[in-house]
Amino acid sequence: MSVSINAALRVPGHQGEGYFFKGQRYLRMWWKPGTPEERKVFGPAKITDEWKIIRDAGFTSVDAMLPSTNDPQKVYAFSGNRYVRFSFVPGTPQESKIFGPAKIVDEWKSLRDAGFEKVDAVIPIPSTKKEEYEEEAYFFSGTQYIANTDVEVYGFRGTKYVRFRFTPGTPKEEVIFGPAGISENWATLREL
Question: How far is CA 124 from the centre of its chain?
């Protein structure tokens, strides 16, 4: 069985847990990086049954999620050419819309200027400096990205994934694990 995902988001305040989105469904799972240890925490469930802000924005699926680095309970959800920003408390029905839904190109000048009508994936840029913008991130669309620090990430594409470390703007990168099949190494995601 081959597995693919559309978007992923770490669960704020819950070490080792993440939300994984595929099509109109999602699940929440715990895993220990670099090991086969994992377990389902919740789901799979229909996104629009559990995420009311996403449903009310008219989204049936999620392409990418971007948490605020200063307050990870505040997120941007991207779907097609639109997005919505909201806050939530994991494991509860508590959600509050902050902004949107709106067209990406109407509100994100840097994405519009880069020709990104849609966002395939996004990852925040880690920062320890309070004066930096809380929403600094790398945005990916098709084969292009826009956005500096060493970053360790999981990259998912189709039925495969790779865990790697890179320094943006330089040729420096190091594969930590993979490429490998998602279904062979993320058993819980087979349920999506």
Answer: 9
